[in-house]
Amino acid sequence: MANNRSYASATTAIAGVIVSVIYLSNITMGIFEIPDNLPFVGNLDEVFFSGVLFASLAHLGINLPVGQRRVTVDANKKKEDASQQPGE
């Protein structure tokens, strides 16, 4: 049963990627979607499908570095922390 659930989950994620890429490629040139010339409302559909794309890719194991902060570690601080560990 778990194998069927993971298969359905992966299939849903792949469908999410395909639908969002097609929508964001703007094949219909804005005719059938919410008109982009409406303030604020016109951008909500792109925001939604971008979120679907990022969530689907993350579910498939493709993590994009969007909005992530770079973590830096001071080499001297790391050495000091290692030398002060208890039990040594």
Key traits:
about 90 residues, mainly alpha
Plain-language structure description:
With 88 residues, this protein is mostly helical. It contains 3 helices and no strands. Helix 1 (2-24) runs antiparallel to helix 2.
Helical residue percent band: 55-70%
β-strand amount: under 5%
Q: What does the largest sheet look like?
A: none
Q: Judging from the principal axes of the Cα atoms, what is the shape?
A: flat
List the helices and strands and how they pair.
Blueprint: H1 2-24, H2 41-59, H3 75-83
What's the quick description here?
With 88 residues, the chain is mainly alpha-helical.
